[in-house]
Design brief:
- Helix 1 (17-29) runs parallel beside helix 2.
- The protein is globular.
- It has two helices and seven strands; from the N terminus they run αββββββαβ.
- The protein has 153 residues and is α+β, with helices and mostly antiparallel strands.
- The longest helix is centred in the last third of the chain and has 21 residues, at 126-146.
- The protein has helices at 17-29, 126-146; strands at 42-45, 52-57, 66-76, 79-91, 100-108, 113-116, 149-150.
């Protein structure tokens, strides 16, 4: 039997960071992202770790895409502090287009940090975009490895 050769690399398109992060978030939630309801704080818990709160925000005005907030909170002097919070834009799968997740903002309370990938419509900060999407991938992997599970819908 002749040996089969693998297809050329050009034909096997690697998944992007955005597609991998979509798959990581879907796996973490344990159900399709599109099933998340607005007006509900979706809580994921893992023993020994801070809860993760997922909230559906208003749609992205430029793209109409779903926007989520992912956050850990701690309390200090009676105030809830983000540690961290990210807003992400979710492009749901459509036809042959895979689902994608893109970081939009990052913030934490102490020390105060607030970073925005798109400071104004049509303008991005490329280095920050790359860094925040890489951080998001690491954070989602860590949450999954820590055993976070959805406890409320």
């Amino acid at each position: 039997m002749p040996e089969q050769t693998p297809p050329p690399l050009a034909l096997t398109r690697p998944r992007s960071t955005y597609e991998r992060n979509y798959q990581r978030l879907t796996a973490l939630l344990g159900h399709p992202i599109a099933d998340l309801r607005s007006g509900v704080a979706h809580r994921l818990q893992a023993a020994g770790f801070m809860d993760l709160v997922v909230e559906v925000l208003p749609q992205c005005p430029e793209t109409g895409a779903m926007v989520l907030s992912l956050a850990h909170y701690f309390e200090q002097n009676g105030d809830l502090c983000q540690d961290p919070e990210m807003e992400i834009r979710v492009f749901l799968p459509r036809g042959d287009q895979p689902g994608r997740v893109e970081a939009l903002t990052f913030q934490q309370a102490i020390p105060p940090i607030y970073s925005v990938v798109y400071p104004e419509p049509g303008k991005a900060v490329p280095r920050l975009k790359r860094e925040l999407n890489d951080f998001l991938g690491t954070w989602l992997r860590n949450l999954q490895q820590q055993g976070h599970r959805l406890v409320s819908k």
